[in-house]
């Protein structure tokens, strides 16, 4: 069974279409409503998703781990991390799964820099992205073209071994670091992202570094 | 001759010592924390009542003025406390997240 895990916070306007698109490509969609103040959960359920609701907002990393717990419980063979804001393309999933299987890998990481990230802001591509790659390399020890894209496919082995404890956006680096620690085989895959909003800025990046440092100190 | 400042600060340090003792008695703080705060407030009491003692320590350490030493120690201590608080805050956050995750999955069952 292929299960898509969609963390969502106030994505009421987009989530229905995202779930519908996903259901054409995967067997099951689980939306983790991270205490949205709009009707995200209602819309997701109406579109056919399983909805798990956080009573209080805990962040994208925490929502993904809730999805992992549920996927392990349901015995998913593959899980796909997918954003709820409609910027990703569900059509990337079948070739990504194929690529993962062909390469006998445990986890696939989507990359915006190998593929077509439409309308990506200049500052993001040329300033923030290289810095993010450097930070990721320092904290995870893995050289990737992009680890913050949010699109990932995990096989059963990776799902069993990767337990996300970084609640916020630092989870992206933590997932890569954990995959290295656990000796998992990683592959990258070009994905299509259509930018409608800027997303993480420089301040968000600094917050991620702070979370990663605290995580190291606390051995999270 | 003891001045008003010394009286007020001594009373404050004594009250803090008493509170440390009370909190340890009802197990609100660990033995380690009780020793830390006990020694800290006792040191404050000594410094307030015998300000020259700080000057003696400062001279030994090669710091010009006793008040500078107090300032350095206070800043270091504040940074340490801030760091400890940040760690406690993160641990608390982790526990809250685990509860929220468990609740979300249980509700779905």
Describe this structure in words.
- The complex is a heterodimer of chains A (220) and B (109).
- With 220 residues, chain A is α/β, with parallel strands linked by helices.
- Chain A contains eight helices and nine strands.
- In chain A, strands 3-2-1-4-7-5-8 form a seven-stranded mixed sheet, with helices on both faces.
- Helices cover 43% and strands 18% of the residues of chain A.
- In chain A, α1 packs parallel to α2 and α5 packs parallel to α8.
- Chain A has a single domain, classed as Spore Coat Polysaccharide Biosynthesis Protein SpsA, Chain A.
- Chain B is an all-alpha fold and 109 residues long.
- Helices cover 86% and strands 0% of the residues of chain B.
- Chain B has four helices and no strands.
- In chain B, α1 packs antiparallel against α2 and α3 packs across α4.
- Chain B is elongated and about 70 Å long.
- The N and C termini of chain B lie far apart (73 Å).
- The mean pLDDT of chain B is 90.
- Chains A and B meet through β3, α3 and α8 of A and α4 of B.
Low-confidence stretches of chain B: none
Structural class of chain A: alpha/beta
Distance between the termini of chain B: 73 Å
| Percent strand of chain A | 15-25%
Terminal residue distance of chain A = 30 Å
Biggest sheet strand line-up of chain A: 3-2-1-4-7-5-8
The number of helical elements of chain A comes to 8
Mean pLDDT figure of chain B: 90
The CATH topology of chain A turns out to be: Spore Coat Polysaccharide Biosynthesis Protein SpsA, Chain A
Measured as a percent range, the helix fraction of chain A is 40-55%
